[in-house]
Amino acid sequence: MFKHILLATDGSASSEHAAQLAVNLARTHGSKLTALYVADPYPYIGIGEMNPAGLQAYASAGQQLAAQAHAHVDALCRDGAPVELDARFVEDATAVNGIVQSAQTVGADLIVIGSHGRSGVARLVLGSVAAKVVAQSPVPVLVAR
């Protein structure tokens, strides 16, 4: 049914269930799996030019966290019947834009994303990445709790 699944992962414990679900779906459907890690833009605009060490440290930390998240998904893909995995890292994009644009770029026909279960006023004011991806995605989105 699904030929290409995009897994949005941030490497957190809350995205663990989404990763396992995406790998199992890819294995069941014989799908290709793309694991995507999006690093938000450097939050201190203007300061990066004055202090390039801070900008470099931020970029380096993002790359390191992405590598750890991708290594975890790769291990899941190798455990059992192998799943074809493409690991991607997107910088300087909001998580929502990075996920939706990457899904279009790779030709994904399903996005799997974890939900952090935000509730109450925080959800109403801030929303969640998962809810925004659901609203903006042109392809189906599976939100894993």
Structural notes for this entry:
- With 145 residues, this protein is an alpha/beta fold.
- It has a single domain, classed as 3-Layer(aba) Sandwich (Rossmann fold).
- It contains six helices and five strands, in the order βαβααβαβααβ.
- It has helices spanning 16-29, 47-50, 52-78, 95-106, 120-126, 129-136; strands at residues 4-8, 32-39, 85-91, 110-114, 141-144.
- It has a five-stranded parallel beta sheet with strand order 3-2-1-4-5, sandwiched between helices.
- Strand 1 (4-8), helix 1 (16-29) and strand 2 form a beta-alpha-beta unit.
- Helix 4 (95-106) packs across helix 6.
- The radius of gyration is 16 Å and the shape is globular.
- The model has no long low-confidence stretch (mean pLDDT 89).
- It is found in: Cytoplasm.
- Pfam families: Usp.
- This is Universal stress protein.
- Keywords: Cytoplasm.
